[in-house]
Design brief:
Layout: H1 12-22, E1 59-61, H2 70-76, H3 86-103, E2 108-113, H4 116-125, E3 133-138, H5 141-152, E4 156-161, H6 170-178, E5 185-189, E6 191-192, E7 197-198, H7 201-209, E8 216-220, E9 239-243, E10 254-259, H8 261-269, H9 279-286, H10 297-313, H11 315-335, E11 339-340, E12 351-355, H12 362-371, E13 374-378, E14 387-391, H13 398-414, H14 421-439
Parallel strand pairs: 1-13, 3-4, 3-5, 5-8, 8-9
Antiparallel strand pairs: 2-10, 6-7, 9-10, 11-12, 12-14, 13-14
């Protein structure tokens, strides 16, 4: 709109176009999940109402943020409370204690407002000092990020790099530790979101913990915790971090850190600078049922619902459900003619990566899927435009996976590829049922 020119915003034709763009009608409308309509913006005049695309249901299949259950959305709409009051203290203590049980630790669990990357930074600065020798075992983009953070704060980081698409070999880690001076810490990734690969974490942690100098074992568990087998204390893991928007079924905004005794002791000697992420400060305030800084209260309300649901389901059943869904998705993608990135033994239960067929351009293919309501993730780093990543964690079942495979198959056909969507769905459901039955 040009300056000084009045737009006839209140004309009937323009009002009609606004209603159409927002998904409303002259008789009013009912919003679908996750949408907003002008009729729902109480007290906001027509001139200031947002012009929105028509409401549509999305099948969100990215590896986080994950879809929110209706109960989570409802919880997050609860009235605000005093974050220094007793009601918040009960909320904080319940969520922290439940997470500790699900993670398998008797150590501290801190809930701080921030992202998973913030939790990675917290893990580094609360256990290390500038100049400390650190070994980062990297198998993808997020392992690289963990190493980058440690380097930025002055650690002497060495990398044991594994080719993208492969898991780390415990024997190779053992040999590397034996051939080099002792490290203060070893950085490990539980589940590499950029490649759809899961590391043999229990074996890697055992090797790292018993290496020369008995290094600290610091783990990025962001996209694995809550959905895959994990026993923090039993596996000798000193510190693991996660985030609310992954398998915990919450919205983004809460960084989760579980801290064992060795990591807590390391914090007393750690000299990397920290203020916002200081675990000692978090521990002091947690004893009072509070956080050092203003928390994301609404996110915590939703996270409590997600954690309660996981506790009710039971860890083993949750792990089995995710493994069965992953088996279905992976079989379905292969039935569509896609080649999966990871070897069968290394495939993740929360995200599957597949190579794009030769000659298929990601941008238009992705746009076509999005137009049909299917949202999947593309590649990262050197793999941008080369792979797609299909998320299946949190509040998920086989029905939405089957629908996603159907849409992807139809889109492949639209782009001239030989794919059978119906067969893909059949194979996926069959593999899901077979894996679930075997776990019973």
């Amino acid at each position: 709109m040009r300056r000084g020119r009045l737009h006839p915003m209140n004309s009937p034709s323009v009002r009609g176009r606004i209603r159409a763009a927002s998904g409303a009608s002259s008789r009013g409308s009912t919003a679908k999940s996750g949408s907003v309509t002008p009729g729902g913006l109480r007290g906001i005049g027509l001139l200031h109402r947002p012009i929105m695309m028509p409401a549509m249901d999305q099948n969100l299949r990215v590896p986080g943020p994950t879809p929110l259950a209706e109960a989570v959305r409802e919880a997050q709409s609860a009235p605000m409370i005093d974050h220094r009051g007793t009601e918040f203290g009960e909320l904080l203590r319940e969520v922290s204690a439940s997470l500790a049980e699900l993670i398998g630790t008797r150590g501290d669990v801190f809930l701080l407002t921030g992202s998973g990357t913030g939790a990675l930074e917290a893990a580094v600065v609360n256990t290390l000092s500038p100049g400390d020798r650190v070994l980062a075992v990297t198998i993808g983009a997020f392992g690289d990020r963990f190493a980058k953070i440690a380097s930025a704060f002055g650690a002497q980081v060495e990398r044991l790099e594994v080719a993208w698409g492969s898991a780390a070999d415990p024997a190779a880690l053992d040999a590397h530790l034996a051939d080099n001076p002792a490290y203060r810490a070893v950085l490990l990734t539980h589940n590499e979101t950029s490649t759809g690969v899961t590391n043999p974490l229990r074996e890697l942690a055992s090797v790292a913990r018993t290496g020369p100098g008995e290094p600290l074992v610091l783990v990025d568990g962001i996209s694995g915790l809550g959905a895959m087998p994990f026993e923090m204390d039993a596996w000798g893991i000193d510190l693991v971090v996660s985030a609310s928007q992954k398998a915990w079924m919450g919205s983004p905004g809460i960084a989760i850190a579980a801290v064992g005794e060795r990591a807590r002791a390391a914090g007393e000697a750690a000299r990397m600078p920290r203020v916002y992420w200081d675990f000692a400060e978090a521990r002091k305030w947690a004893e009072k049922g509070q956080t050092p800084w203003t928390p994301a209260v609404s996110v915590l309300y939703g996270l409590r619902v997600g954690v309660r649901r996981l506790a009710e389901e039971g860890r083993e059943r949750t792990w089995a459900r995710h493994a069965a869904i992953a088996a279905g998705v992976q079989a379905g993608l292969e039935a569509l003619g896609l080649q999966l990135v990871a070897a069968p033994a290394d495939r993740s239960s929360t995200v599957t990566a597949a190579w794009l067929p030769e000659g298929l351009e990601w941008a238009p293919f992705n746009a076509a899927m999005r137009a049909r309501g299917l949202i999947v993730a593309g590649g990262q780093g050197a793999w941008v435009g080369r792979i797609l990543r299909f998320g299946h964690m949190g509040d998920v079942g086989i029905d939405e996976m089957a629908e996603a495979l159907r849409v992807m198959g139809e889109t492949l056909v639209e782009f001239g590829r030989a794919a059978d969507p119906a067969e893909s769905v059949r194979v996926a459901r069959q593999a899901f049922e077979a894996r679930l039955s075997a776990a019973r």
